[in-house]
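Appendix B, example 12.
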Amino acid sequence: METRLTQTQLAQVVAEIDKLSQQRELELEPDQVREILRELNLPDELLEDAIAQMRRREVLEKQQRRNRWIALASTVVVISAIGIGVLFGQNQQQKTAQVVGGEDRIALSKKGGDSLTQVNRLINPRIYYQVTLKNAPIGNQLSLQCDWINPSGDIVHQGRYQTRTIDTAVWNTHCFYDLGSAAAPGKWEVRMSLDGRVISTEPFTVK
């Protein structure tokens, strides 16, 4: 059964045949090539080796072009990933930059209790620093640091911890320190920091 063609398909077939015809006209038979080589005083016995070398070079060039495209695509992916990482980091910094410490107090428990201005190191060796964070980034965790500073201005204890995943913009957190009987009496201070930025501080007296 003969294949029927539309006018559009016929035009495409004619164009394809014309292209193949032109290509065939440009192709030379092996005998023609050898004749040309002899006219150029070149050894025709090297024809097969030369064709094989040409084929290998064509394959190599295709492979090199493919490798360049792969390298280019990989570079684009890496640059995009770096860009996304930078934007994400900047977004995180903007979020944490808005966090501030609100209500804070020295207490004898993790939550609640009286706000103390002085503590007895022998009776209550462990004390807590309760802080209410405002503008906390919902869905994130914060890495906080508490520095406990003695009357001489020395940081005698540095506590680092990470909060749970925050689910409200107002977030209660705390850190603690065991004073012990060897703690120096006098004016103390505790500082809470986020990303190296002090967000809350509270003085108290140790007796």
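The longest strand covers residues 197-206. The beta strands are 100-107, 118-119, 126-134, 143-149, 155-162, 171-178, 186-194, 197-206.
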